[in-house]
Specification:
alpha+beta; 4-stranded antiparallel β-sheet; 4 helices
């Protein structure tokens, strides 16, 4: 039996706060191979995956981007929309056909400001997502680029 992810929206936000957030959602689809966003671009939208798989990547100069995490149903795609200067820190690609809920970041930030309880809950959720993603990215980059000793080869 699998354990629900502690960062999936349903595991973190109350039904009331999920309802408020979802009232601002619209459905989108990304065909397999679609670049959802690239590092350095303006972060003005975020998504919650309904079905499919999104891979987060970190660009590596002089070589291919390094995949750092795969996201599935209920997971947040993008956190850079919440923190100035609102620029993507990673890149994302649909690895399978993806159905998602899309959100206008400016509208959600305004809603967060207007309702402190909702804003706090959403901010804590994004913070949890960010903490997990940073740890997973660190681990993945160490796997890819840490020096290897004779014992680990």
């Amino acid at each position: 039996m699998s354990t629900p992810s502690p960062i999936r929206v349903a595991a973190v936000l109350s039904a009331e706060h999920r309802g408020r957030l979802m009232s601002h959602a619209h459905e989108v689809n990304f065909p397999e191979g679609t670049r959802i966003f690239d590092e350095g671009a303006r972060a003005d939208t975020f998504w919650i995956v309904r079905s499919g798989t999104v891979t987060l990547e970190i660009p590596v100069p002089g070589t291919r981007s390094a995949p750092v995490e795969s996201l599935g149903p209920g997971e947040l795609v993008g956190w850079s929309w919440l923190f100035p200067p609102y620029v993507w820190q990673l890149s994302a690609e649909a690895m399978t056909p993806v159905r998602a809920y899309a959100f206008d970041a400016t509208a959600v930030r305004m809603l967060m400001d207007a309702d402190p309880a909702f804003g706090s809950a959403l901010g804590h959720w994004v913070g949890r997502v960010l903490a997990v993603r940073l740890q997973q990215t660190r681990t993945r980059l160490l796997d890819l680029y840490a020096p290897r000793t004779a014992a680990t080869r």
